[in-house]
Amino acid sequence: MLEIKGVKKSYGEFQLDCSLNVEKGRITGLVGENGAGKSTLFKAVLGLISYDAGEIKILGKTQEELSEKEKEELGVVLAEAGFTGYLKGKDVEAVLARLYPKFEAEKFHQMCEEYQIPLNKFIKEYSTGMKAKLNLIIALTHQAEFLMLDEPTAGLDVGAREGMLDILREYMEEKPERSILISSHISSDLEHLCDDIYVIHKGKIVLHEEMDTILEKYAVLKVSEEQYRAMDKRYLLKERKDFFGIACLTNEKQYYMENYPKIVVESGSLDQVILMLTGGER
Length: 282
Ligand SMILES: Nc1ncnc2c1ncn2[C@@H]1O[C@H](COP(=O)(O)OP(=O)(O)OP(=O)(O)O)[C@@H](O)[C@H]1O
What we know:
The protein is built from eleven helices and 13 strands. It has two domains: 2-213, 3-Layer(aba) Sandwich (Rossmann fold), CATH 3.40.50; 218-279. It has helices at 38-45, 68-71, 89-99, 105-114, 128-140, 158-174, 187-191, 211-217, 225-230, 253-259, 270-279; strands spanning 2-11, 14-22, 27-31, 53-58, 74-77, 146-150, 179-184, 196-201, 204-210, 219-223, 236-242, 245-250, 264-267. The strands form three sheets. A six-stranded mixed beta sheet has the order 5-6-7-3-8-9, with helices on both faces. Strands 11-12-10-13 form a four-stranded antiparallel beta sheet, with helices on both faces. Strands 2-1-4 form a three-stranded antiparallel beta sheet, covered by helices on one side. The structure holds adenosine-5'-triphosphate (ATP). Adenosine-5'-triphosphate binds at residues 11, 14, 32, 34-40, 79, 185.
């Protein structure tokens, strides 16, 4: 669906240098702190900014090679973008109907009703959550096969975030060959949604792993200096000094549980893994 190979972009000190793949039928998450480069990567993929090196292919083609029909296969939500506040929800509907031959008016109405989007109000009067939901509904109601969602849950409370993740799960269940690329700086949103995770830090991908593998095989080992000296370090990805000794990130927790039963093993949530990868010493 999407292939990003060695894409580079510099903004002064900041340097993006990324490769990433989104496979058909999978939800791929891009997680990283504020300023890590998520939006820059999305903008490069969508042709909204130029990049200095590398190659991007969507549906096997470059941006320029994509036909209008193929572009309709893409559903996009960009951070801080949307329709002007001086339109009402129902005006958006009219624009979409002109823009997309495959626009699904009935589904649009159904979703707006279900998610309590007032079509007769001006968008500038919408809450942050309403705007975010409207943006997602727009991306979902023209039979797009590939969704690219940059921080679609930004500014939403926990309940609204869960609601939005449910919408995405339903979208995938309708047609399993669809794909989603979704970014967030909130790892718990992605942990329960994605098949594949990329962690971006200061413009670089520091981890690419299947979500199930992270949950099954990753862990943080809490060891004393003495335990650390004696242990096999082959499967340690990163270490960090802690108040109790040393915290070590491993992707082979079973090995350490079997061979070092006295070591404290904290099963790695995505948050813990990210913290270790982006804040550790090695
Ligand atoms: N047009 C621009 N001109 C100069 N610097 C830019 C520009 N756009 C982005 N940057 C810089 O590039 C870096 C990455 O920004 P980007 O918006 O991609 O991060 P992000 O991961 O999306 O962050 P957030 O979660 O806060 O949205 C930042 O240091 C930012 O200041």
